[in-house]
Amino acid sequence: MGFCVIIPARYASQRLPGKPLIEIAGKPLIQHVHERAVASGADEVIIATDDERVLQVAQNFGAQACMTSPDHPSGSDRIAEVAGKRSYADHQIIVNLQGDEPMMPASLIRQVAEDLVRHPGASITTLCEPIDTIADLFDPHIVKVVMDRDGYALYFSRATIPWDRDAFAVTTEDLPAGSEHFRHVGIYAYSAGFIREYVRWPACHLERTEALEQLRAMWYGHKIHVATALEPPGHGVDTQKDLRRVENLL
User: Fold this and answer.
1) Does pLDDT of 234 surpass 80?
2) Of the candidates 10, 44, 100, 195, which lies 20 to 30 Å from 55 by C-alpha distance?
3) With 90 as the cut, is the pLDDT of residue 63 above it?
4) CATH number, domain at 72?
5) Sequence-separated (6 or more) residues with CB below 8 Å from residue 202
6) Where in the sequence is the domain holding 153, given as residue range(s)?
7) What's the CA gap between 203 and 219, in Å, rounded?
């Protein structure tokens, strides 16, 4: 199985401007992410950016980097542009690894690519992990997912799903006994042909409401297979608090 990894790295983060270039443990954040992708055994790893500063830093540490339009509304659009520039065949497997995931295990990058091969009925594959605290279950910044018996996504939401009617009628201070709640891990695999098609579709109401891109694929009738991550996915970097925590861990 061959796959490539494309890392969208936008410079203008609202909460952490210049986030890809913030130094963590002696290296820019984007270099940590790139090293995780290379360790996965990918055939090719490309950093897709909209800023010359990120491009230069990436090239300085030996990465392949590609300039993309600053007008893209999402990382998916940035990836589709790279796939076009590289003339990828429709069947080429692409892993979308976010540029703020410096602790994503290489094993999970490979897992999500392999899962796409194992599930030819899915247009996208992604990962999840069990939720083990009530705070995470009710946190709207943590995306929840529910699946059918075969592991295909039924819905993604920032809300608490599924809602345990009987348990939560008693208390919302503790996880229900035998809780089956899952956090979505934001890493994706799909084919180049699919992402080229996906970016041509208008955003649907559910996607705009929840601010979750994957709902667009489901809206247009495509299946997403969700596998349980083989190991903890580590911490991403969205805030100053995240930055301090990841720096301490690294």
Assistant:
1) yes
2) 195
3) yes
4) 3.90.550.10
5) none
6) 4-249
7) 9
